[in-house]
Design brief:
It comes from Chthoniobacter flavus Ellin428. This is Mammalian cell entry related domain protein. InterPro entries: Mce/MlaD, MlaD_Phospholipid_Transporter. Among the domains are: 39-145, no CATH class; 153-272, no CATH class. It is built from six helices and seven strands; from the N terminus they run αβββααββββααα. A seven-stranded mixed barrel has the order 1-4-3-2-6-5-7. It starts with a helix and ends in a 10-residue tail after the last helix. By secondary structure, the protein is of the alpha/beta class. The chain is elongated and about 160 Å long. The relative contact order is 0.08.
């Protein structure tokens, strides 16, 4: 069977189109950009896990270039670094910027980031400030490996390591709180008893002073009448007795005023002390609930959970013994 020329032409066109599409796909996946310039920056990192040749570079979140070279720093270069942070660097990444990227400020921050856990990492450049001096071509920047989700995981790492110690501390605190709650409850009850006991006694003493003062007034009035009817030496003795009674009456009045003022101050101070102990009893009981929750589930420091129903203040204050901090 004789084939037409058109069949060969169609087959050739299909092959050429396939090659063009394959080349375009390869170019797109490589991350290369047609608008690349000769402007480069070098960034030193302690770790560049996830970064490779042709990885994307973003300036303030926008596409700004690609990674064109990655090399390890020599020990001589690391030892020659000026600061302790720079001595921790192990890799130097060279990035090539696009032509339309404006001059980069010198206070820019270079980090590694990723949009999601599964997406590829890229070099992230912050916007910097417009008034800062601009970086020269080929300038070297200090990079920061932690960024985005990586930074979060690095921050959670030390916290996770400290959780066992925190748990042990919480258990010790729980054990030490039971005697504290018991003593706090006893102190509140003692203050209440003292207030109730001192109040009636002070009132009785005030009543006694008032009665004595009234008796002194009556005695002075009687002496006045006796002095008016008396004569001779007896009158002089009665006048001296009156003088003494007047002094006693003044002393009783002063004592009455002093005790009244002291009773009011003492009652107020005892009431304030009772309030302080009541607040301490409530706070220590609720603190027990917090430490118990952290001891049982340390993850509450990071992830929130279902709120617990705490024992009300009224129930805590009514009880003479330690009560559960959390209602079942």
């Amino acid at each position: 069977m004789k084939k037409n020329l058109s069949d060969y032409i169609v087959a050739l066109v299909v092959i050429l189109c396939s090659l063009v599409l394959l080349g375009a796909l390869t170019y797109a996946l490589s991350g290369r950009h047609g608008k690349s310039s000769d402007r480069t920056l070098e960034i030193d990192y302690p770790d560049v896990t996830g970064i490779k040749l042709h990885s994307q570079v973003r300036y303030a979140g926008a596409d700004a270039g690609t990674v064109t070279n990655i090399r390890l720093l020599t020990f001589a270069e690391r030892e020659a670094a000026e600061t302790e942070e720079q001595k921790k660097n192990a890799v130097r990444v060279t990035i090539t910027l696009l032509k339309d990227v404006p001059p980069i400020p010198s206070d820019v921050r270079a980090s590694l980031a990723a949009e999601t856990l599964l997406s590829e990492k890229f070099v992230a450049l912050s916007a910097g400030t417009p008034t800062a001096p601009k970086l020269a071509n080929g300038a070297i920047l200090q990079g920061h490996s932690g960024g985005g989700l990586d930074g979060l995981f690095e921050a959670v790492g030390p916290l996770a390591e400290s959780l066992p110690h925190l748990l042990a501390t919480a258990e010790d605190l729980l054990k030490s709180m039971n005697p504290l709650l018991t003593k706090t409850g006893d102190a509140v009850d003692s203050v209440k008893v003292a207030v109730n006991d001192i109040g009636p006694r002070a009132s009785k003493l005030l009543d006694g002073l008032k009665v004595t003062s009234d008796s002194a007034d009556v005695a002075v009035k009687r002496l006045d009448k006796m002095i008016a009817d008396a004569d001779g030496p007896l009158k002089g003795d009665l006048e001296e007795l009156k003088t003494s009674m007047v002094k006693i009456q003044g002393t009783l009045n002063s004592a009455n005023l002093l005790l009244t003022h002291t009773d009011k101050n003492l009652d107020a101070r005892l009431q304030e002390l009772a309030v302080v102990f009541q607040n301490l009893k409530v706070v220590s009981t609720h603190a027990k609930a917090v430490t118990q929750a952290l001891g049982e589930k340390p993850s509450r420091l990071i992830f929130s959970g279902k709120p617990q129903k705490l024992t009300s203040e009224e129930e805590i204050l009514r009880s003479n013994k330690p009560v559960p901090a959390v209602k079942p």
